[in-house]
Amino acid sequence: MQLLPRICAFRESDRTFQTLAYDTAFHVLQKISIGAPALGMMVLYNPDVHSNRIEATINFISAETKKVTTSSDALDSFFTFLFLFVDSYHEKVTAQIKAIIPQLMDIPLSRSLANVLKMIMMRIPKLRLNVQDGVRASVYHTLTGLPIPPKSEPTGRPPSPKLILQRAIEEPKELQRIVLAVDVLGEFYFSRKALQRIMQYVADYYLTADNVEIRLAAVSSCCEMVVPFVGVYKKVTTDKRNSLLQTIYGVLRAVCSVIVNNPDVQTLEVQFMALHDEKLEMQQACVTLLGRLAELNPALVLPRRRLMLLETLSQMMQSGQARLEQHSAKMIAQLAKQSPKFMRPYVGSLMVALIPKMRNDQKVGLL
To answer: What SUPFAM superfamilies is this protein classified in (predicted)?
Structure first.
């Protein structure tokens, strides 16, 4: 099943062989789901050759999908076919895909299903709202434990998901469901009105969850969800700007709070302690490592780097020991090499410290 699609991809492969290969894969599919990805690849390589089999194939996939009640490898195979199928025919299969969307929405959300739904949104714009409504309802139920209220009802605040987060700690599958649901919120480009129902809820509860995976997913998702609000800020009328600003501020404040107060800060304390290691080589290695960590979490690392720089300058100016002065100069050189923008405000202080040392004939060679 892996070989046939590759052979069909060659230009030298004639129509007769491609038809025979497709029939073979379809025959295998009727017995085992492994034939579904092979069919998808054949359709992707030669959509025109197999266009007369669209109806029969999609009807079979639809019927087989109904028989699978839980997430499984079989479902993943069918979703792989649908992903490639939609990517091949685009709007030509609008009617067939529209008919199968309600069936897809009844299946628990998985990564492979989410990929299929995103492909439908991209390739068949007419079905974008159908997909978004279904996905939003599924995600809302996963994160709140409640059915999503009708659009006509005023926006209400669901209760705290305390029990949902507790189950995530106890059950790995529940954890995966929640992480996926949070990820999907940032991937499907929902309308601002739709996002307002759930964005602040995620920021208030899932950004502060005990589980690291959930927090990381929530940070990424919140950053994606807030983009549309930031993009229209200058375009809205003055009377609406204040409300919009409060929405943006509430989410960003929650994200920044997590970055600064993350329990993982404790793990960095060991790195900071190494800045005062008795071995000078260890201190230099720590400066290099902190330079890399600063790119990942500047709010946490940069204040310590500033303090370390001031201590190093003080040591170079006041220690009176050539070895420590040389070591301090190497530390500062490493900082300047790694983070020139960080060092720019301190150039004046560096010159004040370095020039007198360079004038000292006994220490020029060491520096």
So the answer is: ARM repeat
